[in-house]
Amino acid sequence: MTDITTARDYDAIVIGAGFSGLAILHHLREIGLRTLVLDGEDAIGGTWWVNRYPGVRTDSEYSYYSFSFSKEVRDEWAWTERYPSGEEVLAYLNFVADRLDLRRDIQLQSRVESAVYDETSNTWAVHLADGGTLTTRYLVSGMGVLSQPIYPDIPGVDSFRGEKYHTAEWPREGVDLAGKRVGLIGLGASGIQIVPVIAGEVDEFHVFQRTPNFVVETENEKVSAADMAWLRENYDAVYEKAANHPFGVAMEPAEHSALDVSAEERRRIFESKWNEGGFHFANECFTDLATSHEASELASEFIRSKIAEIVRDPATAELLSPRDYSFNGKRVPTGHGYYDAFNQEHVHLVDTAETPITAVTEKGILVGDTEYELDVVIFATGFDAMTGTLTNIDIVGRGGRTLRDKWLADGLKSNLGINAHGFPNFFMSLGPQTPYSNLIVPIQLGAQWLQRALRWAQENDVEYFEATPESEDWWRAETERTGRQTVMYTEGKKAKAWFLGENIPGKPEEFQVYMGGGQVYQQHCRELEESGYASLLHRVDAPESVDVSESVDA
Question: What is the rounded CA–CA span in Å between residue 9 and residue 428?
Fold first, then answer.
């Protein structure tokens, strides 16, 4: 058996102390690996520590938004809301860390600036912002997919004399918006969540909308003791159901095509799932809302009709109704009173698609020639999803080439989103090209897959895992092939969706996630395991197998 205890500080270092970092730490400790989690923040929680804006909560229901691997955690933790708030999710993660005694192997306020692979020693040197360096055999990214915020490229942002906030950088002490004139830029999931919460606090609220969204409203019922008792008795079945669902949710599969039922029956089914709320509408109505443009447009027509029912002003209702793309062209967010918020007289929807924002001024926001004077500007402009956290630091592999330069030169390439050629013993949790899913399911399954893989490497004297070029080419082609079979491709291009990288100016258009279904993805992972990890056993046998044409100094 390979000796993993010499000549380095740790066997594994994981970057990020959110869901991924905690799951990986737990599972790697179980097989005896000396593992350390590093996080630049001053508390654990990852996305749920950083994102603390008013209204932040899950889009997934509590029953499948938690780990299944610890019976102690399952038996002792109790959720209180159907869609847990960010505060409650953060409390859950702290409970997990305490109950599983994870904190002793977590080092906070330790921001990673770079990680450099050394071929001679087969180790990674992890360089921290405070000047420290740690060495490890295995390096794992648990940095998540939504932690690299982006700001709009609008002239004059720095000239505004009022208060400015990004939803991903909301002050820990909160913000007093009472009686203030507030402007909001950005209506993705964060903007949609914040609108109904702050609408009742502010004096005047201007919501600047470039692209409307198809929002499925829902109710957020309290979770009773009886609900939790049932879940504890049935959690394995609930989790298995989620793991076998394309989107990682514990929901019933739809039975019919939207095109194969009568208009009356179609309306009845749409209404029933609209009333159930959240992801039930997208996943349980019909089999083809993600694969048929005609079915997608039928769902779009239904939601537009619901917007017209809820929003009293016809002009505002029309502005809130997407016309340039159809349902599933963007990730479908869950609303909690979003549309109804626009019935308040002091809430104003400003169309910036017809007349774009010209500049941010000292006093507010200029749209065309109209200046909206504001006290506060909130940016809910999203993230550089999937790749942003990985390209924001220098991850330097063979030949001094960074992961950033590899993807810039070659396009987005990985083996199942788990690792990449040229980066031995580097792994990614929720890496690009992993499933478009409720994320907790692939996080847990990925941590358990990694545990088995590294245990196998120990038992078989495997010095390193590294994706073969052939495996990357295959997975890139498969990700593109399955993605283009969905409406997400054509409609996502129209909607400038993040899952195609369209929300970042200059970012190449390519699928950031795997659209072929979470359960299919897991089958691919099982096949890789059953093959003896064949496509991860790359060996550098000749100099020409290392491409350093785009290399940079480490």
Answer: 21
DSSP state of 532: T
Beta-strand ranges (E) seen in 52-188 are 106-107, 112-118, 123-128, 133-141, 163-166, 181-185
Q: pLDDT tens digits, residue range 470-504?
A: 999 999 999 999 999 999 999 999 999 888 888 77
Cα separation, 11 vs 401, whole angstroms: 23
A 10 A CB-CB count for 232 gives 14
User: CA-CA distance, 286 to 435, in Å (whole number)?
Assistant: 21
Sign of CA dihedral 289, 295, 298, 300: positive
What is the distance between the alpha carbons of residues 17 and 111, in angstroms, rounded to a whole number?
Answer: 11
Place of tokens 């087969």: 122
- The rounded distance, in Å, linking the Cα atoms of 49 and 89 is 9
Is 227 exposed, middle or buried, given 0-12, 13-18 or 19+ CB atoms closer than 10 A? Answer: middle
The answer to whether 355 and 75 are in contact (CB under 8 A) is no
Q: What is the mean pLDDT of residues 240-258?
A: 95
How big, in percent rounded to 5, are the helix, strand and coil portions of the chain?
40, 15, 45
Structure tokens at 335: 């609303």
Over residues 70-123, the pLDDT tens digits come to: 999 999 999 999 999 999 999 999 999 999 999 999 999 999 999 999 999 999
Tokens encoding 507: 């970012």
Q: Give yes or no for residue 551 having a pLDDT over 70.
A: no
Q: Which domains does the chain have, with CATH numbers?
A: 10-148+385-545 (3.50.50.60)
Question: Residue 433 contacts by C-beta under 8 Å, 6 or more apart in sequence?
Answer: 412, 414, 416, 417, 475, 476, 479, 511, 512, 513, 514
Q: How far is CA 222 from CA 57, 80, 89, 341, in A?
A: 14, 6, 15, 22
Cα 349–chain centre separation:
27
DSSP 415-456: BTTTB-TT-TTEEETT-TTSBSS-THHHHHHHHHHHHHHHHH
Which residues, other chains included, contact 2 with Cβ-Cβ below 8 Å and sequence gap of 6+? 457, 458, 461, 462, 463
Q: 195-198 long-range contacts, Cβ below 8 Å, gap at least 24?
A: 195/55, 195/338, 195/341, 195/347, 196/55, 196/335, 196/336, 196/337, 196/338, 196/340, 196/341, 197/54, 197/55, 198/54, 198/55
pTM of the entire predicted model: 0.93
